[in-house]
Design brief:
Layout: H1 2-13, H2 19-31, H3 33-55, H4 63-74, H5 77-80, H6 83-134, H7 138-166
Helix pairs in contact: 1-2, 1-3, 2-3
Length: 167
């Protein structure tokens, strides 16, 4: 309940709650000092912001006109296609073309290696199925071998840990 009310405190200070929610917040604050303190801080912050806003009179400021003029200037085709912008775009295109030119052999070899590895993988899978069909008890053989490997690995790790702890 406390967390739900705590999330409503900012809306309460801004008088954005309905009558029912406002009453719930007030009822909770009568028992909760933490929320009362939070509301006091929010009211203080709201008062500070209001006084700061009143001190900065937007009507006498030309900030809006300055921002809008800058937006209009930056949006003109002449600015967008200026020498600096065009030079940057051309330099980027040259760098990208050079990278692709030099990297093309590496990319081609990488693709070739990937295709070869995929082919080998399929061959191994095909071979495994062939062997599985030839040996009737292949699953049991694999399980026994896996069990032997696990036991040997456990024994080896155990000896290693014993050696490290005593040495």
């Amino acid at each position: 309940m406390h967390e739900e009310i705590h999330e409503l405190l900012s809306a309460y200070v801004d008088d954005e709650l309905g009558k029912k929610q406002q009453q719930e917040v007030e009822r909770h604050m009568s028992d909760c000092g933490e929320c009362r303190e939070e509301v006091a801080h929010l009211l203080e912050l709201k008062a500070l912001l209001s006084s700061a806003y009143e001190e900065f009179d937007m009507k006498n400021s030309n900030m809006e006109q300055t921002v809008m003029a800058r937006i209009r200037f930056e949006s003109t085709p002449e600015t967008l296609l200026s020498r600096g912008g065009m030079a940057t775009a051309i330099a980027g295109a040259i760098v990208m073309a050079a990278f692709l030119w030099f990297a093309s052999s590496v990319i081609t070899k990488g693709i070739h290696v990937g295709v070869t590895l995929t082919s080998i993988s399929f061959s191994l899978i095909r071979s495994a199925f062939t062997v599985a069909g030839a040996l009737p008890n292949l699953l049991e053989v694999f399980l026994v071998l896996a069990l032997i490997v696990l036991i040997a690995s456990g024994w080896s790790v155990r000896r290693l840990l014993d050696t490290k702890s005593t040495g």
